Amino acid sequence: MNALILSNLFSSRDYPWEIVNYEFFQNFESPHTRKCYERDIQLFFDFLKINQVKLSSVKEIKKVHIIAYKNILQEKQQAPKTICRKLSSLSSYFDFLVEKDILDINCCQGVRRPRQIVINETKDLSDKSVQKLFEALFDEEETPSVFLHRAVIFLLFSTGIRKAELTSLKLKDYQQISDSTYCLKIKAKGGKYLTKVLHPSAKMVLDQYLHFLCESGDIISGDEYLLRPTKNPKDPKNLNKPINPKSIDYILKKYCQKAGIFERISPHSARATYIGSALENGVELWRVSLDVGHESVRTTEIYNKRRSNIKNSPVHSLGFFKPFKKSA
Hints:
Elements: H1 3-9, H2 17-25, H3 31-50, H4 63-75, H5 80-99, H6 127-137, H7 144-159, H8 163-167, E1 174-176, E2 182-187, E3 193-197, H9 200-216, H10 245-258, H11 267-280, H12 285-292, H13 297-303
Antiparallel strand pairs: 1-2, 2-3
Helix pairs in contact: 1-3, 3-5, 7-9, 7-11, 12-13
C-alpha cells in the first residue's frame, strides 16, 4: 500500500505501517490478488484523504466512515458485485489489524452489503461465433505477432483459463502427459493447480508459435514466459517478460471486429464461452466445475449464459401435454 497516503492520515509513530502492510499483502500467494487487495484498500484511504476526514489514528475509523464510502460507490453507480468486493477487501484488512491488536474491532462488521445483482453480465459467444473468430485469425498474413495472437485466442477459448493465469504461463508449464495428450499446468486462483488438456487445434497453433520463437532464438529455458511480447521498445533485446494484459484485450477486440462480432466481449467472455459450450454439448456440470477450478457448481452455473436458451425450455418436457383424445 502507498505508505505516503497512510502517513498523511496517521502518524508514522503509531505503527510501522510498511511492515504491517508487507505482512498482510505478502500473505497472498497470487501477485494479481495482492494487487487487487492493495488497490481496493487504497481507494478507501484515498476517499478519507479527498474528503478531508481528519483522523489522528487508525483507531478513529468508524462504521460511519465505511457507510459513507459505500454510499459514494453507489452514487458513482458502481456494480453491486464491485462494491461488495471492495468492502470485503477492506474488511479482511481490518480483521488483520484486529489480529495484530492495532484495532479493537472491525468497523466493517454490520455494514450492509448491496445485493450482488449483475448489471452487465459477462457475455459469451455462440459456437458459430467462435468458429468465425478462429477463421478471422487465419485470414491474416503470417507474421510474428499473428502467431502470438492465434496462440492467445486459441488458449483462452479452448481452456477457459483466466487472463492472469494465461499471462503467467511459463514454457515449462506446457507438458506432454502421454503419446498423444498435451496439457498446460495452471496455477489458478486460490493457489490451486489445474491440468488443462489441450485440444489438438490449440496444440497446433501453440506449436506454430513456439516454432517461430525457436527459429528466432528467443527460447532459452523452461523458466521463460510462454506468451511474450513480440516487441519491447524500452529494451529491444529483452522479450522474456509476460505479455501485457492490455495487449490481450486489444488482440481479442481486434479479431472480434474482424469476424463481425461487435458485442462487448472480454477475455473473461472466453471463460464463459468455454463453460457454456461444454454444458450445452452434454458435459456434466460437476465435471466442468472441477475442470475450471470452481469451489462450487453454483459458481459454474452463473457462468453458463446459455442456460436460458429458448429451445431448452422445460415446457417441451411437460408430461401432461402428451397426446390425448378429445371427448365425444
